[in-house]
Each structure stands twice: as structure tokens, then as C-alpha cells.
Amino acid sequence: MISVIVPVWNAARFLPQVLDALEAQDFPPNEYEILLVDNGSSDESVTVINRYKKVRLLHEARRGAYAARNRAAVEATGDILAFTDADRVLDKGWLRSILDGFSTSDADVLLGRSRPADDSGLVALLADYENEKAAYVCQLGTSRQQYAYTGNMAVRRRAWERYGPFVELQRGADTVFVRRIVDCEPHGCVRYCERMADRHLELCTSLDYFRKVSLYGSSILTYSRVIPVLPLTVDDQIRILLRCAHHNHYSLWRTLWLGTGLLIGWVSYKSGAWRRRLEAGPLPVLPDSSLPTRDAQPSTHLSIVVEWENAVLAGDERGRGALRRLAHEVRTLEKHRRIEVIVVYYPGDVDPVPLERLVSDAFPQGMARLLAYDSGDYYELKNAGAKAATGDIVVFSDSDTHVEEGWLRQLVDPFSDLRIAAVAGSSYIEPSTLLGKAFGAFWFFPSRAKNARLEPAKEIFANNFAVRRDIFAKLPFQPLPGTNRGACVRWRERMSEANLAVVQNPLARTAHPPPNGGTHFFVRALTHGRDAIFLARDQGRTLESSAFGTLLRLMLNFARTTINPWTRRADLGLRPWEITPILLIGYVYYGTYFAGEVLTFLRPEWMSRRFRV
After folding, report:
1. pTM attached to this predicted model
2. How far is CA 27 from CA 54, 91, 193, 200, in A?
């Protein structure tokens, strides 16, 4: 099965020709599927697509062709992924050529041949040169000179699962992806297949070519921050020109004409790079060690999801510290695992400009990305991040938690046991202040774990756990309407019902702050009480959702507040004079908690709408 993947954005004028060619392929209809991903088109693209029965239409809200391709790759069922664009008309034997190309070689990637819409004049000569250059670079086998183009590319599924997905840059992510493969696989893993032909509808004249070359000059500066780039030398370019003239039987005049066109193209390329430098300033290049070597053994791909709701309450400085510690953990594993970080935020609460600055300061370009979501609900933000994730394992952290050294490794290493579906870490309240010590004593988080034994997890906290992505896709968080917390409790129960193993590694530790300020303190207590009532009702616990259950909880909470400072005093480093204020803080908190429960009985709809933390 071959899965043909086409990202679409405002391409209605080209789609009829493109889709007619796809459906007319000289290939068994039941052996290929066509996946088109609409990327927010505002023209008639979707209407045109819906006319074609064989086409499967997907939608991707994240802007960018590479985000759309990643989305389709997740949905694709083929063992070969064939990428093309919404302005490419494919040769009738395109799919057959892909299958033959993989059948007769050990290649992981095939790159095809492209012709302009008006295949005459200077633009036709320039197309000859570009095709010859692609063949030359594939034969050269020098990884830093290898490039790729998703307009006409096919990838084995096994290679995609090992080295994908695309880094979601504006341009050049196809080159980054292929470089991952070339740097780790034997020579010949990327091959040029001349019979994989297409006609590029958007490329009509030499002016179109020069505009594209200018864009390439700009984009190479972007993806060179992700991978080191070595442009073709002048000797290489001359050699390609001569090979192109020889293979296409050019006259001297046509060769000189092509040479003139390439010179103009070189100026266009340099001007694009120059404009990019003026706009962005100096762009650092990552060291060679940021890429795997041929001896490296790429392992599980990780996606780390961070919601940016808690940082609104805890403050940007706390959020900045959370990102820095997370980035440190990423750096300890990025040479052995491919890692992406997704920061999810609600635009109604967060200005993306300073947030993007925080994220870019903490992580290398291309590793982390922002994801806007139309809800500020804590669990819906996490669900949105997990849905956008491309890793085999999704790791959840919060924007106000500070992870400890070795946290990420401890959280993901247990997945080497294929029976494990999820791993919970150990979350505790940071006892650096009196308020922190107080919440460490009476709140629902346990003390900082000391044991190192992997054991079944009785509970999970959504700020510190990891799960296999395919499992979470089937069992995401199900927030209860009107509540802010507690969906992780329901999720753990659903995992048990599905007989899926969830273990806890106490060494995967993260520190959570206490409430930030008086308003957060009282709102947190009110919502804590409200959620206790709603969750008890949802789970059918009649006693706990009754007035008697409310009084019983008040007594138990007061008792726990009284006892825990004494039993946890060594873990929290409590001084004798701190016991009394901690008791008072605990009594005020759970008194407010009780008020939240009472108000929920009296005005449930108002309580469900009024407070969000």
C-alpha cells in the first residue's frame, strides 16, 4: 500500500488537474490511498476536494505544509509514504515508478524529477539543471550537501517511523529529515528516480524560478540552525552544468544560456539570504554533535507537552525556570532520542509574543513550538498538545513545575518494557518557603519520594507522567464539565478498566509550587471543594456527594492538617516555630474548601462558571 500525502492551502485553481492525475494513476486502485490535508484554506479548495471519491480529506489547524504532512503521516496506512504538492501534476506511472524504485534497491528515500508547467525556454533548461543536481547530490553521498524536496519524494514507512516526523519549519524540513537518514544509514539510502516525474504548475517562467531560488536562499539560513549545511562548491556546480549539457545534448548556445540563467539564479539566492540576515540578524549554527552519527542507534521519539496555564498563576519567572530545567533534561537525551517540545497556551490568557521569546531562549530552534488552543481548560490544553504530538511517547509536564536532574530519563526508560503503557513520576510541593512547607504538609501531593523501586502506580499527576501516544489517542483526558482538576483520577481508572499497566518511578521527581498569592490561595481552595462534589457525583459516590460527605471531608482534612506537619517534619525540614503557622494556613485552606463545597450545593451552575485555576 502506498499513501499519497498532499498538503493543501488555497490551491483550488490547481486541484482539478492534480487530483485527476492522481486518480488516473497506472496502479491498482486498492493499492494506494490519497490523503489531502487542508491547512486552513480560504478559497474553494475543500469544495473541489470533496468532488473526488477516492480522496480522503483531513484538516490540520497548525499552519504550515510540514505540520499538514505530519498529520497525514499519522493517519496513513501505507508502508510507503509518497509526498507531493497541490500544484504538481504527476506522471501516470508515478506510483509504479515508486514501487519499482523501492523493489530494486535498499533505498529509504526516493527523489523524483520535476518539469515546469511551460516546458520551454530558459525555465526548461533550469529544470534540467535542477534534476541533474538532485541526481548528482544523491550519488555524491556527502551528507552535508544532501537536500530533499517533498514536492516529489517517497519514503519507506520504517524510515519515517525511525527518523520522522518533519521539523515544522516554514521551509527546509524535508532536507532536515533526509539528513537524519543520510547521517545514520549507509550510502545509497537516498536515491534519485528519474521515472518519478511530475509537472510543476506554479513554475511557468524563469522569473518564477528566480523567485523560488530567492526563497531557498532565505530558508537555508533557517534550517541551518537545525543542521550544519555545506553548499555545493563552484566545482560541483560546473560539473553539474557540464553533465546536464551532455545528458541533454545541448548546443554551445544552450549551455551558455543555461550558464547565464544559473548566474542570475545565484544572485537571486544570495539576495534572499541577504534579506533574511537583515530581518533576523545573526543566526547561530548548531555544532556537528547535535546530529547523530552513522554509529548512533536512534531510539524512541519523545514529545513533551507543557501547558501554559499554570504559569499564568505562578508567574513568568516560575515558567522561565520550568522551561530552563526542562531544556536541561532534553539536552541530556537529545543525542540518543529525537525530542520535540510543544507548549500549549490559550490566547485569551497568554500573549504569544513574550511566550515565544521564553521558549526560543530555552530551546534550540526547531525543537520547541507553540500551539494555540481555543480553551484555557488545563486538561483540554494537554489533550490538544498530545493530539499535535508526533512522538511514540508523550511526556506531560507543567509550566510551573521544576523537574529534578535525571527526570526525563527516569520517566521514559521503563518503556523499554513493552508491557508498560504509562509511567508516573513523583510530584511534591517545593518546601523552600513557609507556604511551600505548609502545602507540602497538608495538600494532596505526597512528600518527596526517597525509594527507587518501580511499582504499580496508584495515582498519577498530570504534571509528571508519560504515556504511549497510541494509547493516549484512544484514552485522552475526559475533563468533567464545571471542574478544573480531577480528570487524571478518572484517566487512571479508565486505564485500569482497560487492563493497561501504569507504573510509578519515584526517581522521576518534579517540584510543584504552592499557590501564588492570596487570590490564588482562596480560589484554589474554593475550586478544590467544588471539584470534589462534582467528581463524586460523576463517579456515583452517593455518600461523598452528600451533605454528610462534605462534613466528613471537613473533619478528615482538619485531622490531616493537624497530624501531617508532625509526621512530615523531617522531610520538609520544619522548625518547631513553623508548626503553628502551618496549622493555621491548613485550617484556613480547608475551611475555604468547605465553603466551596457548600456553595456548590447551593449554586452549582454559578460555581461551575465562576472559578478556573
Report:
1. 0.52
2. 13, 12, 17, 21
